[in-house]
Amino acid sequence: MRTNIKILLYTIIIIFVLPSCGHKKNPTGGKKDTVNPEIISVLPDEYSNISRSNIEIIFTKPIERNTILSGIYIYPPILKKKYIWDGNILTIKILEELEKNTNYYFNFSNKIKGEHGNFLNKNSTYIFSSGKLNSNRISGNFLYEDIADNNKPIEMTILTEDSTEVFSLIAFGKTYILEDLNNVEHIIRAYIDKNTNKKYDYKSEPYFQKSIIADNSTIMDIYLAYADTIKPQLKSINVICNNSINITFSEPVHSYSQISISTADSLETNVDIIASYLNEDELTILTTHLDTLKYKIKINEILDSKDNLTSKDSLLFDGTTLQDTIPPEVIISNPRTGSSVNSYQPRISVLFSEIILENDIETELNEVETGKLEDIVVLNKNSNHYIFNSQNKLNNYSSYKFTVLAKDNSGNIMTKPLEIIFLPIVRKVVKIEK
Hints:
By secondary structure, this protein is mainly beta.
């Protein structure tokens, strides 16, 4: 009897258990997560004073915590800090005294991963302050050596003068604005990543780098140019009159170290150079009076914008006794008359048609309503291009008139003085702290 019962039990096991084993499958784990994590909230609000507070970042989903160490970059560096997690909320606890009246940049890169391996959706930068928020800015236009590059994204990096990165961004369009900068010297670096390999390729991609101080509202155009190895050369000389010559280079020149002019005979009598003005590929030189002789000009260490150096170059030219009888003119000036300026001490730029010496120029800056005269500082002089600045702060919302009258080295006087009327309007931005 017991034997029959055992046989019956074995039969039941074979019927029900073995077929189910034959159809057994491994669990699939559900649908794969393909959604990138995002930052949905940062507390306190951006631009807040964080001298005595922590930073709280809320992500859309839990984050792989070890990627935070390489994915967050803070400038200026905060060495003593602690990361505290609560689900998808990260708190950065600041454990040191911050620099006074300094902007802090919290950069979150897409190296940060969600717990399923998906990278953060984009790079983000949040700006906070310790004390007073600095609101300096640098802005300008993008210019291109190759016009075909004007619709491509531009990789920009902002660094300190010792090449420490502050933050980076990708810019689009014809203009850029870098706001809320500390009042220090910055290096602006930009390039177009044409092959999308996340680095600058020297021979195939346009590049720009320049140092500039962020002071209130600074304007600087970014010219994206390709590298070359062609050295600049003297191309031609145009003798304008008996005390002025114009030199054209083979390309725009950044600088030179020395100029000398002498007669091309055995005596090699030197000609005194009074002043000079370099503008891109043109160099204007004001000299003592020339004669109808052959002269030789020598220029040393001619450097172009891509660091190609010509150690020495020279050209021969014929002098003239033709005197200058044409009065100087203003080619362009800034600000335009009737416009407003966003500065208490605006820079006034005047470009003349020829070189003007400092002693041959008269200026006046006065407040229109009161007639009060303001002292003027000349920042750039003895050239075609003059830059003037008020020595003291001007009054907000008060009209000012700037007047300039000049004569050239031959005694020709401007037919009428230049007058510029402008209005300083400096709006104060009030940040509300919560």
